[in-house]
Design brief:
This protein is mostly helical. 58% of the residues lie in helices and 0% in strands. It has one domain. It is elongated, with a radius of gyration of 18 Å.
Length: 83
């Protein structure tokens, strides 16, 4: 997802939360996942759009975001030099 690629996944609540409904196969079988992958492979525009959304979804988990969060915690605790 962070690489900006489309994703095909089994329809679980976890996958729905992370990837969104449009990434989910229509069922929990291998055939359903294959059908989802084939549908994505046949639609380059949809793949690009999904990839951009995926990249945006991962930004809160990036190294930069995590680093800022840790620096803020240290700053708030008074354990980091004032900038």
């Amino acid at each position: 997802m962070a690489a900006g690629l489309a994703l095909a996944a089994f329809p679980s609540e976890h996958n729905r939360t992370l990837a969104g409904d449009e990434a989910l196969a229509q069922g929990s079988t291998a055939a359903a996942l294959v059908a989802q992958i084939e549908a994505l492979a046949d639609d380059r525009a949809k793949c690009r759009a999904m990839g951009l959304k995926n990249r945006e979804r991962t930004q809160p988990y990036s190294l930069q975001s995590g680093g800022r969060m840790i620096a803020d915690v240290y700053q708030n605790l008074g354990l980091a030099p004032q900038a």
